[in-house]
Amino acid sequence: MLETVGLSKTFKEKKAVDGIDMYLDVGESVGLLGPNGAGKSTTISMIASLMKPTSGDVLLNGKSTIKNPADIRKVLGVVPQEIALYEELSAYENLKFFGKIYQVKKAELESRIQEVLDLVGLAERQKDLVKTFSGGMKRRVNIAAALLHHPKIIILDEPTVGIDPQSRNHILETVRRLNVEQGTTVLYTSHYMEEVEQLCDRVYIMDHGKIVASGTQSELFSILSSEDTLQVQFSKISENFLEAIRAIEHVRRVEETGDGVRIISKKGSNMLSELVHAAERHHIQVIHFQQEVPSLEDVFLHLTGKTLRD
């Protein structure tokens, strides 16, 4: 349905997006992950026809949207990172304004405003000024505005940053309903890995302007098929002991966590035995250990060297 082909954007000497190829099938929910500065927002701006690429193209059903941006604007709703509302207007007045911008027919606009307000759970607050809303409520109005024209595709760029848990859960449920119940195609970026794991069928991981991996979650997990992850709690931890763990053959990464040490090693290595011997030499006891199942966060860290919130 939607495809980017060799999409690139250069600002002066800096290449923010470097020849990326992505696609979204009808009815899919796709995650776009990357650390800060990876090029996600620039990519979204080019897909949404808000910014022209330096090279490459965005295709909608096989046709260039660079040449005909009106085609994608008819079927696309965008929820930006920053709140894009008029604070001195009510939620209803904001939606009426954006509905006219989207050229929703006058006979349909009133009922459509009520539908989207119901969807985001703000029908009872529609007459209140936006400036009286919490950050989470404002983001829900933002989502409602992006849905007024019945978009076939919706892009949500960090829609839950800095909001309360109740609004966050409501937004996630709204996205799930749009995708699963209404068949809306979704492109979703987030700093919260669990959201992408919960909502998305496929995932693209972006770093330094490039797509470094893509696939279903199970396909991405297979990237770590050569590694084991142990979470171990010791009676005490010292820097000398951590260095001793790092020196063990087949250890690939050692991280201190809130309640112990996370050790990533070559799959099949006899790591627990080696750890016990190292602990004995440093007069340290192994209190508890657990082998972890790989997560999407592990894949991301493996590919980019960073956690998603870095």
Automatic annotation (TrEMBL):
Native source species: Oceanobacillus luteolus
Protein name: ATP-binding cassette domain-containing protein
UniProt xrefs under InterPro entries: AAA+_ATPase (IPR003593), ABC_transporter-like_ATP-bd (IPR003439), ABC_transporter-like_CS (IPR017871), DrrA (IPR005894), DrrA1/2-like_C (IPR025302), P-loop_NTPase (IPR027417)
Keyword ATP-binding: yes
Pfam families, per the entry: ABC_tran, DrrA1-3_C
Single Gene Ontology MF annotation: ATP binding
Annotated ranges, domain ABC transporter: 2-233
Keywords: ATP-binding, Nucleotide-binding, Transport
Membrane topology classification: Peripheral membrane protein
